Each structure stands twice: as C-alpha cells, then as structure tokens.
Amino acid sequence: MSSNRSRAVEAVLVATLACAAFSMVRTPASAVPIFAERYGLSCTTCHSVLPELNAFGRAFREHGYRLSLPKRATIPIALRYQEMYQSNVAPPDTRRTTGGGIVLGAAELGHVEAFVHENLGAGGGPAGLFLGYLSTYDERSGMLYRAGLFELPLQQSPQQRLIAATPFSIYAMTAGHDDLALQQPRLGVEAERRSGPWYLAAAVDHGEFHGAAYGGAPLPLGYTTRPGAPELALFVRRDIGVLTLGVEHVGGVRTIAPQGAADFSDTYRRDGVTLSAARGKWELWGEQIFGHDSDVDGHGSPLGSSGGYAMMLYRPGPHGYLSLRYDAIANPTQQRSAALTGALMLTPHLRLLVERDVPIGATAPPAWRALVTTAIPWP
Amino acid sequence: MNRLLLTLSTLAVVAGCTPNAASVAASGGALPPGVPVQRVDVNLGSNPPLAGTFGALAGYAPNPSSVAVGAVIVFHNSESFPHTASGIAGTAFPAASPFTVAALQPSGTRLSDAGWSSGQLQPGAASQPLTADAPGIYLYGCFFHYGTPMRGAIVVK
Ligand SMILES: [Cu+2]
Question: Do B82 and A174 touch (CB under 8 A)?
C-alpha cells in the first residue's frame, strides 16, 4: 500500500515536472547575485538553470568575472540555500530531508576578483570554507589565472555547480587508501586559456585542502593522508564541429599514514578522455578515466581503477532540462548506476530538480530525490 | 553525419567501461532454504569501539557474533564510503594492518578459507555468503580502517 502510494506520488511528480519542462517556462535564475547586481544584469544572463553556467556565464568566468559595463555598488555577499528530500535512507539514518546553505562572497580588488564559497553545514556537518580563490584575466595573453582553493576544471562541475542530485561516480572515486577524489577542491595555482577551438588548462596544487566542511562529523578512520608531492593537472579540449574532444591528466603523490604502521607513498595518476556534442536541443556528454596507484596498502601493491559516465541531455526550453545519465566505476569492485533527472526554474529564483534512479541489474530498490535551490538577494 | 553517429555510439559504448573490475559478489539468492543467515552490519559511524576479550572491536554489528556450524554470514555496508570484511589468520589481532591489496577483491566462500574477504564493499553493497564451516574463532577486519580499530570476531560453535 505505502509502496503503491509512494510510486503514485513519484509518478505524479515526475509527470508534473516533465509537463512543466516541456511547456517551457521562461524565468530568470540566480546563483551569484553579486555579479548580476554589479553590472545591472538579470541572473539569467549567466545561468539559464541555476547554478549551471550557460555559454555567456562560462565566458564571463573565463574572463575573470569582468565585463566592460558600468558598475553599481553591491552587497559583497549572497546566500544560496538548498533543501533535498530523498525517498530511501539507509539505516541507521531516518531523516529524509537535508538542508544546506552556502555563503558566496565576491569582491573586486583592482584587476583581481576574490571569490569565496563558505559552507554553512548540511546534514549536521560542520561549516567551513569550501572554495576561496583569487582570479585575474590578462587581456594581452588571454590567460585566466586562479590561485587559492578551487575546483579542477573538469568537464562537469563536480560539486559547486553540480547539475544533478548525486555526484558523478568517477569524480567521487577513491582508490585504496588514496582518498583524494577528483571532486575535492585543490589548493594551488591554475592557468586557463581559450584560443579558437582550443581550451587549455593547467594546475599545480597541494592536492587538497583539509577544511572543516570536507569530512562532515569527524570519524576515526585509522589512517590519515596528505599530499606527498605537488599535484599536476592538465586539461586540453578542442571543438570540432558539433563535437568537443578532450584529454586530461591528474597526477601526484599521496602520503598515507596508517595508525600503528609506517607512512607510505602512493604515486597516482588519473588519465581521461572526454567528449561532448550539442545539436539543437540535444546534448551528449561522456568521460572515461583510467587510474593507477603505485602502492595502496603499504606493501607496494599497485591498484588500477577506471570508470566513466555517458549522459544524454535534452533542453526543451532555456530554463529546464531532462537528462539520462549512466555512471560506472571499478576500484576494483564495480559499481554501476543510472538516473533520470529533470531540472526546471519554477520561479525566477527557485530551481526544482527531481531525480530518479534507473535500476540496473539487481540492486537496491530505486530511490528518487527532489531538491529546491534558491539564492538571495537578487537584483 | 555518419561519422558523427559512429563517434557518438562509440562513446556510448566506451564511457563507463571498467576493464579492471573485480567480480561483484552475489548475495543471498542462491542459499538453500533453511540455512540460518547472520547478517553483519558494516558501519564505522554507528558501531563505535567496544572493549572485550578480543581487545577493542568496532565497525561491525553484532560483534563478536556467535553462530552455529553451517550458518552463513553476509556482510552489508550501510555506510556512505567503502569498507571490507577480511579474514585474519591467528588468534590475536596484529598491531599493524595485516592486509594487502588482495583484500579489495572478493575471495573465499567459507570462514576456514585462508585470506577470505568480502572485497571492497561499496556503499549499500552486500558480501558473498560465507559459510561458518568449522567451529572456532575467526578474526577479521577492514582493509581501510584497521587502525580505528575496525575489527571483528565470529565465534562458531
Ligand atoms: Cu572500513
């Protein structure tokens, strides 16, 4: 009975969302109201669906958040809030809703833009700095430089502007005791350049940042890890007609300190290929990563890992999308999942996202999640 | 256009491929009816260390667990990050982790099998069934969190 009812509720929700998406709602969005306010623009200029960047938003970011438009005084901070409901919770958890707020800050310091993303704590976790970097664009060379705590420029934003309710498995993947996932923010310096059909980015970083916001409630894990050598990350993408093809490499050394045993070093690399294609209202995205770790147990045992995703995305109108995504990883045990996601701007400053697992093989009963996201103040 | 379609279909096949995947352990299903199953919860957050005859044990429940010869143990990871349940030879826990990368691969079907392991249990995953085939005390632990101390014992009578 209750399962039938939840299925009915689920069907109605998905249907409503799909109908609304197909009937094309046209409303502006907001994510960093500070920028919109500064230039007197609507938030929709950079975000068609919050918090994803549209083409203008990407260009704005790549030019160091600067426009040659008259500026206005702004409040340098904004608040983004998200509330999520999930149908299935694993014992001993019983709570189905998780709320989380973030404070965004942006300030102009001459030619440099300072950006801060502070987590207020979600699901009972502690608050802490999540991202904080200085960014500047050099007109002559066309280079964007960033220094501080930033997300790697992966094909998808792994956390800050995640376009789904669940993370991409390859970005969350760890290998043995090497717990540095691609989605974790890096502390370091980065340079990016877009030139014709080419996009190039390189980062040298400290491998991670241990902030209060990263681990939730602290659990004794019996080991700690730290960067053993600077991490190097390279991203190259090229547009070829409707396609964008890319290669990427992230590599470094992780030092692992198990309780009651000697520290050991794990040299790791993650090599990947990316592809995206856009035609009309349809987009296709794919990424495949192969990982190698030289020592994951302190006995010199190497470990291979791999995984990827393929995602089909349909945008019936500018302010909503439907996506079907398949994720797989092996590190070394295999984990596969698929999800159907619909996102829609319900009001000018409120995004609704509904996601439902697509069962693959004999796994747990499919769960669904719904989340609303908003940002204030808006211009 | 044909080339585009070819590229796209290749991508769809290639993305998400996992050439080095370890076989995923099957759980439950194939057990003959009437075999008692002891489900062991694998969760560091909800099973804090408790001192006992085997020293401090944490991360598994019930722990220690007592089963009769012939019973079957299935480990279930209810936490949001990976764990293993991997057998340890001997009658006392060594000070440092005795595990190698082999513990990340599922192996063994009986507690008396040397080096049995659930393999890396992803969040929500269950291990292969392990038969308690001979009386004795079986120690095990987690590859990742042995120092926590994420350790357990099974008493087979
Ligand atoms: Cu563990």
Answer: yes
Chain B residues within 8 A of A307 when measuring between CB atoms: 16, 18
Tell me whether residues B8 and A277 touch, CB distance under 8 A: yes
| CATH architecture of the domain formed by A3-376 | Beta Barrel (2.40)
SS3 A2: helix
List, as one string, the DSSP characters of chain B.
-HHHHHHHHHHHHHTT--TTPBPPPP-STTPPTT--EEEEEE-TTTS--EEETTEEEBSEESSSEEE-TT-EEEEEE-SSS-B--EEE-SSS--SS----GGGGS-B-SBTTSTT-B---B-TT-BPPPEE--SSEEEEEE-TTTTTTTBEEEEEE-
Q: Residue A257 pLDDT > 80, yes or no?
A: yes
What pLDDT digit, counting tens, does each position of B11-55 carry?
555 667 777 676 544 444 467 778 889 999 999 888 989 998 889
What are the residues whose beta carbons fall under 8 Å from the beta carbon of A121, sequence distance 6 or more? A100, A127, A128, A213
Partner B, chain A 154-173, Cβ-Cβ below 8 Å: none
Domain total of chain B: 1
How far apart CA A146 and CA A135 sit, in angstroms, is: 4
Give me the domain span that covers residue B92.
35-156
Interface confidence, given as ipTM, is 0.81
In this complex, is the C-beta atom of A91 within 8 Å of any C-beta atom belonging to chain B?
yes
- Residue B110 falls inside a structural domain: yes
Question: What is chain A's length?
Answer: 379
Burial of residue B77 (number of CB atoms within 10 Å: 0-12, 13-18, 19+): buried
Task: Find the B109 Cα to ligand 1 centroid distance in Å.
Answer: 20
CB–CB contact B105 A298 (8 Å) = no
Give contacts of B95 with chain A, Cβ < 8 Å: 260
Does residue A21 contact residue A319 with C-beta atoms inside 8 Å? no
Beta-bridge partners for A106: A115
Is B17's CB within 8 Å of A223's CB? Answer: no
Residues in chain B predicted with pLDDT less than 70, given as ranges, are 1-15, 20, 22-30
Q: Does A123 touch chain B (CB under 8 A)?
A: no
In a domain, B28, yes or no: no
* Test mutation, B10, B11, B60, B118, chain A, max A CBs within 10 A: B11
Give the CA distances from residue A173 to residues A37, A178, A308, B45, B82, in Å, rounded to whole numbers and listed in that order: 38, 10, 10, 20, 10
What is the CATH number for B77?
A: 2.60.40.420
Work out the angle at residue A242's Cα, subtended by the Cα atoms of residues A239 and A243, and round it to the nearest 5 degrees: 50
